[in-house]
Amino acid sequence: MNRSAPVYDLLGVGFGPSNLALAISLAEASEQQGAQLPHLFLERQPDFAWHPDMLIPGSDMQISCLKDLVSLRDPTSRYTFMNYLHAHGRLARFANRKTFFPSRAEFDDYLRWVARHFDDVCAYGETVIRVEPVVEQQAVTMLRVTSETCAGIRKARYARNLVVAGGGEPAIPDAFSDVAVDDRVIHSANYLSAIDRLQERRGAPRRIAVIGSGQSAAEIFMDLHARFPGARNDLIFRSHGLSPSDDSPFVNEIFDPDFTDTLYARPRAERLKFLQVFQDTNYGVVDLELIERLYALLYEQEVAGVSPHRVLPLSEVAGVSRGNDGVTLTRRSVIDGAAEETSYDAVVLATGYTRNDMTGVLSGVRDWITGEEVDRYYRLPCRAGFRPTIFQQGANEITHGLSDTLLSVLPQRSREIRDALLAERAAETSGESAA
């Protein structure tokens, strides 16, 4: 072990909203309880950013601003969204808007404002490339975390505990696997910057396909209409139509922090059934107001006697090829199998994300991890003799519910992880004293 490398009680992979909320909770422990846990978060982006390529003009949050980083745990915290508004002199005017749903751009600015308070505990521009066990006397005593800067410089640090909150990786449908490197094939995760680069290199696209039936797909479809007025856009998806998200009050209670205990206590089969039943609260659904705007756009086309845009339900992409003239999709009906080929200047995949840290950042310690389901306090199960605790945030829907990938539970989850860390530290200290 390189004794010159720094050692932390906790190293965090990623510094998005999940680990930012944890940074707040750790700061509270220091200020209110005097509990010191040296920690550092490693973030591959050069500065804080929250889905920057989906900050589409005019897009609003779909959950209440009260579900920020801390309000549901401590509404008196200086890191609440309300205090952000107060600090920026906008609280009264926000109240006059009579809404709990700020624009996505404003909420991003709130998150950046909070993140600036924690610049001292985040190393930006560093990508974690390897996590390795440090074995001493047949036991893993800590973890060696290697990161790489934008300049290609590698750094090693040691962690007694690790928290992984890297977010999801863009999900690329199999049909697009061979053409995903083409700059004309864009995933929604990179939408704004990629569509700008495409226009700079190839000019304004004249025909565009959007693949998907969720909120991102609908938002992108409408943005493309505004961005390229002369383009012909197709929205392609397998379901029968765009379905509205269920955000009614009683259903919304499944996202309450207290509901996590209820769901976690149920058998795995029941949890899986629950996720299936309530998919329409979060996946493959669209805000009703946006559906109505999109439908009105298509209706206005009919009135005008023009049809530049099409919504093509009950369709799947059966084949993809690319050439100098564009990306050609073979669209097949899921009803009768009828196929049609169309060439596009750009294709946008609003196809979601995958979340599996086992095959990524945690692959180096995979042999020590005994299962992929975390316990109630977000700890991965590990073999005997593995002393570090690995916490996982944002990849635990099967155990903790649909809210796990969302903002709703961040205040409660960050406190639970912090308290688990402090309890383990207290137990270690007590054991050392007894010895």
UniProtKB/TrEMBL annotation:
* InterPro entries in alphabetical order: FAD/NAD-bd_sf, Lys/Orn_oxygenase
Sorted UniProt keywords = FAD, Flavoprotein, NADP, Oxidoreductase
Coiled coil regions, renumbered to chain? none
GO molecular function terms noted in the UniProt entry: oxidoreductase activity
Q: Which residues form the signal peptide?
A: none
What Pfam families does this protein's entry cite? Lys_Orn_oxgnase (PF13434)
Family, similarity comment: Belongs to the lysine N(6)-hydroxylase/L-ornithine N(5)-oxygenase family.
* PANTHER family in UniProt: L-ORNITHINE N(5)-MONOOXYGENASE (PTHR42802:SF1), MONOOXYGENASE (PTHR42802)
Name-wise, this protein is L-ornithine N5-oxygenase
Protein source organism: Rhodovibrio salinarum
